[in-house]
Amino acid sequence: MKNKAVIQHTQHQYKIRPKAKEFPMMCVLSFVYTCNAKCPNCPYTNSKIRSTYKDRPFMKEDTFRIIADQCGFYNAWIRLSGGGEPMLHPKAVELIEYAKGVNAKVGLITNGSRFNEENTRRILEAGVDMVEFSVDASDPLTYHRVRKGLDWVVLLRNIKRMVALRNKIKSKTKIIASGVNQLGVDIEKVAKFWEPLVDNFQKRKYLTWGINDPSKSADPAPYLPPEQTIPCPFIFERLNIDSRGKVMVCGFDIVGRTDMGNVHEKSIKEIWHGKDFEYYRKMHLAKKGNEIELCRNCPDWKYRSWKHNYWKIVKVAEVKRNKKAAYLDMQDMEGCIADTGKKKGRK
Questions:
Q1: What is the spatial distance between Cα 113 and Cα 135, in angstroms, rounded to a whole number?
Q2: Which residue has the higher pLDDT, 99 or 334?
Q3: Residue 340: pLDDT over 90
Q4: Rounded to whole angstroms, what are the CA distances from 310 to 42, 114, 222?
Q5: What are the E-state strand segments in 181-265?
Q6: Does the model's pTM come out above 0.85?
Q7: Which of 124, 284, 310, 341 has the fewest CB atoms within 10 Å around its CB?
Q8: Backbone angles phi, psi at 239, to 5 degrees
Q9: Among the listed residues 245, 269, 238, the one whose alpha carbon sits nearest the alpha carbon of residue 259
Q10: pLDDT in tens, 66-87
């Protein structure tokens, strides 16, 4: 791979993001701890974390509603991710509908295997803000290797159905695909395959979560140079919540070593402004983050970024989605693309 110019992932002044002053911009939920795949790059496949959640493989409805109500009040994001496949939750659709009903933003990251006509329509009609399909491949052979247990044909069918239905009912849902830049996968080929089918494609860094083998990354170049100890942006914008309602300081702590509070005992706002989060932020701002054991041992800190982040992905997906929507509107009654002179080169 050719060396690329270093991207400067910095901002003028490191501090809590303006939109996160009162409440985190995003609550990342470990909504489920079960999965129907055994992806080799997944930290849950390569650990015994799920066995420690046998008492709570699915987040209870009351826990989710507590989170959704508070996120809705601040129009913050709920990101259904981590632990397993969110659509395996027996109440996934109902809870997503609830969250949208109370004004929360919802981002769903999924392996795409559990969709049918009904749940696809309900999710789109609820106004889910973004659906991210983790694909990791552009052909069935690679997919079988990196997404063990899943079916390539099912993935294609479900994504194409969702995009077509989204366009038909004019839902505002953004639909993207993502791939982990790992050895054995031609990420450029994957991007080229998926970009015409969805609103945007995200190339993801291979993360270890302190569990996976770092040598399997196809792009180990850091965003944040470790020697500069640039503050990690996560503690200034988001927090993670497990299926029991416990808040962890960040997404790296998937084993739940930190306990910032529980949503059944404190409000998310109280936890966000609590002494534990303040400690992490002050240490990072003083460039002493590596004096914190969790952060010092985080091999993925260097892959965080103040600029290349979820908010940028959402914005780009929205722009591309609008461009494609305008293009689709220029179809004639027979469903043929009108001759506008702009068929080629559109993004």
A1: 11
A2: 99
A3: no
A4: 20, 24, 17
A5: 200-204, 238-241, 246-248, 261-262
A6: yes
A7: 341
A8: -145, 165
A9: 245
A10: 999 999 999 999 999 889 999 9
